[in-house]
């Protein structure tokens, strides 16, 4: 007999919504809990029904959004940043999202 374990999806929750002043930085808090190792974290942005993946690598616009620091900081907030944000985390069981 072979015994294996079932890994559940990560649990992902966001902090409360807020309002940012133009030109300031704003952090969207993402809390990730998982019974197994989280292998990746990503962010999606939705505006006018269109969803985009936020690239947090090699940019001065965003920081965070990685396994060790899942919260997303938006630098120099502008009106074009208004929209819905979703945090996603992946482990061996699949992808959990806020």
How are the elements arranged and paired?
Elements: E1 11-14, E2 26-28, E3 30-33, E4 40-47, E5 50-54, E6 62-66, E7 69-74, E8 84-91, E9 94-97
Antiparallel strand pairs: 1-3, 2-7, 4-5, 4-8, 6-7, 8-9
Order of helices and strands: EEEEEEEEE
Which stretches of 5+ consecutive residues score pLDDT under 50? none
If strands are numbered along the chain, what order do they take across the biggest sheet?
Answer: 5-4-8-9
* Fraction of residues in H or I helices: under 10%
Strand content: over 45%
Largest β sheet strand count, sense and barrel closure: 4 strands, antiparallel
End-to-end Cα distance: 37 Å
Shape, per Cα inertia axes:
elongated
By DSSP (H or I, 4+ residues per run), the number of helices equals 0
> What is the rounded Rg?
15 Å
> What structural class results from the helix and strand content?
mainly beta
Total beta strands = 9
Average residue pLDDT: 92
Structural commentary:
The chain contains no helices and 9 strands. By secondary structure, the chain is an all-beta fold. A 4-stranded antiparallel beta sheet has the order 5-4-8-9, with no helix packed on it. It starts with 10 loop residues before the first strand and ends with a strand.
Quick summary:
The protein has strands at residues 11-14, 26-28, 30-33, 40-47, 50-54, 62-66, 69-74, 84-91, 94-97.
Output the keywords:
single chain; elongated; 48% strand; 0% helix; four-stranded antiparallel β-sheet
């Amino acid at each position: 007999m072979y015994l294996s374990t079932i890994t559940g999806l990560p649990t992902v929750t966001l902090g409360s919504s807020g309002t940012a002043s133009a030109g300031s930085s704003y952090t969207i808090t993402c809390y990730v809990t998982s019974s197994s190792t989280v292998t990746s974290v990503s962010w999606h942005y939705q505006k006018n029904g269109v969803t985009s993946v936020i690239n947090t690598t090699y940019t001065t616009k965003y920081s965070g959004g990685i396994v060790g620091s899942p919260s997303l900081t938006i630098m120099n907030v502008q009106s074009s940043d208004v929209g819905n944000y979703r945090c996603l985390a992946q482990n061996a069981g699949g992808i959990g999202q806020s």
